[in-house]
Amino acid sequence: METVExxxxxxxxxxxxxxxxxxxxxxxxLCGVVFSTATGFFQLRGVRFWLGRTxxxxxxxxxxRGATTAFQSACTALAATLGTGNIAGVATxxxxxxxxxxxxxxxxxxxxxxxxxxxxxLAALYRGTDRRGDPVGGAMFYIEKGLxxxxxxxxxxxxxxxxxxxxxxxxxxxxxAEGLWDAFNIPPRATGLVVAGVIxxxxxxxxxxxxxxxEKIVPFMALAYTGGAVLIVLLNIQQLPGVLAMIFREAFSxxxxxxxxxxxxxxxxxxxxxxxxxxxxxxxxxSSVMANSAAGCTPVEQGMWGIxxxxxxxxxxxxxxxxAILCSGVYxxxxxxxxxxxxxxxxxxxxxxxxxxxxxxxxxPWGGVFLAVSLSLFAFSTxxxxxxxxAQAAEYLWGGRAAGIYKAVFVAVIVLGCVTRLELVWxxxxxxxxxxxxxxxxxxxxxxxxxxRESRRSLPARKGRVLxxxxxxxxxxxxxxxxxxxx
Length: 487
Hints:
Shape: globular
Number of helices: 21
Largest sheet: 2 strands, antiparallel
Radius of gyration: 21 Å
Distance between the termini: 55 Å
Order of helices and strands: HHHHHHHEEHHHHHHHHHHHHHH
Number of strands: 2
Strand content: under 5%
């Protein structure tokens, strides 16, 4: 059995390097650069505009044009992206890539906002309706109709389904079980049964019920965790200037730390930071567009919700975690670099344990309890979001009945995830996510002229006037692909 696990681990390591190699990273960067430059860096110059059309509009009351309101769809998408990566993943990035990884996480998210914008615009352009007449869309639809490749769309859907059972299910369920066992000594099997029951009742109602649940969980979850992280930073506010200086200094450092596995040179900080940002906010994976499509927004409106989701996930939530850890003093650059050089990083706090140490500096022993509850809520929300993605992928591959079968399998896998060690599962999940990204990024780049033309009709010009206010409901997708419409 051990031999089989080693062989599988070797195969998955090779596939992981293929899925997340330089080619994928370059495609992600290219997408971000293309759409940022084509829109005049709308994610920066249009901050007030897209915030007003997303969060501002939500607080004024959602306009429901589909199965959910735009705010409910955004909460469902955020439920999938705001997961354990925001708590444990950021700490892991600091340990693996040093403080400089935070800068490159910001950089990748800044470009990723426009990648998320583009894939959401395309999802709305190629959106259809389900058997109930509700809007439905996703990367598989614009891959099939835009690239005219049913096989490539099916491959994306298959990897999406597998990823939903791995990263979107077993890994999250295991995080809930471990957190509750450490804080309250609740047996993992009992946790699995309760979580499976609650998730099953929620997803049985479809995307509309998931939207109603997530619009209540996500804001509370984000506000509670944000409050705790902000308090840690405020209690150590005198450390903030030095921490920011260290982030920028280490991001461009040409040295290799102390020469070990955790050497924090430029290349290491860049690769870890970009990977952490992408795996956290999902920009480029083509997954979150499925939830957003249920709202029935116009293409550019749906695209702006994509910008907001990446900004909240990485530029806000992940940044708070990083600043809380660094300002609290629980992470020491020289100590971790030296441990990496000696190959003994496992002896130091890492992941959720490192973040928990930061919270204990402000809240004492209750800091660990608070983080366990936060981690459980984050992971629970991810389960809800990815259940929608996997169900839609199953329905696309095998029809409406397959979605019901998938939901039953999804609930059963939760229990398995709570009682299983998941080191290999995390690697398998990351690999499937990488293979999801490849066909999606190819489609987004090939169909980029459509995104840019749609944007020029509706986005504010550089002086603030709207080029064209016409509505897009019912409009057929614009024709044309390739890069000819950009250059």
